[in-house]
Amino acid sequence: MEEINATPRKNLGQLLVVSSLIFGMFFGSGNLIFPVHLGQMAGSNWFLAALGFAISGSLFPLLAILAVVVTKSDGLLDFARPLGRHFAAIFLILVHLTIGPFFATPRTAATAYQMAVASFIPKHFSTLGMLLFTGLFFAVTYLAATHQNSLLKIVGKYLNAGFLTLLAIVFLVAFIKPMGNLSQAPTATYQANATIGGLLEGYNTLDAVALLALSVTLIHAIRGLGYRGRALTKLTAKAGLISISLEVLIYFGLVMLGALSMNQFKLSANGGIALSQIVGHYFSSVGTLLLGALVTLGVLTTAIGLVCSFAQDFHKLFPKVSYRAWLRTTTILSFLVANAGLDTIISWSLPILMLMYPLALALILLSLTVSQRPYAGTVYKVTIAFTILPAILDMLANTPATISGLAPIQRLLTLYHTAIPFASLGLGWLVPTLIGFTIGIIWGRLRWVGQRGTLPESNR
User: Fold this and answer.
1) How many CB atoms lie within 10 A of CB 431?
2) Secondary structure of residue 426 in the 3-state scheme
3) In whole angstroms, what is the distance from residue 391 CA to residue 388 CA?
4) How far is 299 from 415, CA to CA, in rounded Å?
5) Main-chain dihedrals φ then ψ at residue 322, nearest 5 degrees
6) Which sequence ranges are marked TM in the entry (predicted)?
7) Domain boundary at 338, 372, 395, which?
8) 78-126: per-residue pLDDT in tens?
9) Is 345 inside any structural domain?
């Protein structure tokens, strides 16, 4: 017992390394690209838009980490277990396929290739170039993941240091010599509801979903430093706050950078193009190399965390298959999917993401509020029952036109967007989830009190 409850001596270096690990686990390509594009769209309302983005892109991921720590979950299977083993298993599989080999993991390599390599090779060699680059990228990812005991050292000390140094250079030069002022007119979406627009844009990072899985790797790494129980929770909370604070500063800087760029460039099709234009404006071809190195370092840390978490959780769900075998499986699948190209990956994954995000946020809410209550199972089940239907409708609304354009589905979606608050904004799950949460608490507590009242005095 003494070993279990032992608390390591406070070490500022360990706190900073764990903070860096948290940062590196989920700050990838999307966290660079989306804020810049948001700044271009928000224009003079960049600050309000950045505030919304920070809530969904920083606060929600921090809450996801704390939810895993508070529930003492050792993986997604444990985290969703109050909903029943079968639902927990389905949730684990869907989350890991979404943030793993079907979308987020291959997106890391595809984005790195597009921003670091594509502009330097002829178009007729692009397929071969993509194949070679993604092969090397995932070979490095696999090697790092097979040395999990060195994860803190690899991510916390080296990759993040290079990433932040390169990003600091970009910020320093851009703000010393700004491209203009911040008075550019915002697009229609950001004229009246800039904060909501920024909040929704932050969903594109997928960090709140990803951190439910990546936190497993994080907790294993912290335990390797000797932390247990309350000491682990306190260190995670402190490190998370440091990491999130840094991320918020970066988000605000990137959004401002995007807003300033509208003095020199037209609104870009995506943040990758915008960021390339901005860096190229200041550093020319050297800037392109700088940006490519920055993005590659950032997404590599994310890929390492994703493949480790996938292998850990799938090994628990299917223990007859070894951790190394699952690691090879997710790495190879990610390599294959990455070669389909970034646009294809996004189009495949969007509908399932619209299904998963409401479920993940509902589970975070439940974990942080009622997970320790004796009637938690009832609250979990009622809340998710109210969440899943609007989540499915959001998924249908984002399917290809061949599905969403069918007359019965169109009528259903029209009714949904008209009758449910915020549904037209993609937040139709919010009010039903809160209603289900309230009903679940009342019903669960009444059932619990009733069951206690029927117990013999000796069993109370």
Assistant:
1) 15
2) coil
3) 5
4) 40
5) -70, 160
6) 12-34, 46-71, 83-104, 124-145, 157-176, 208-227, 239-262, 282-311, 323-342, 348-370, 382-407, 419-443
7) 338
8) 888 899 888 988 988 888 888 889 888 998 898 888 888 877 788 888 8
9) no
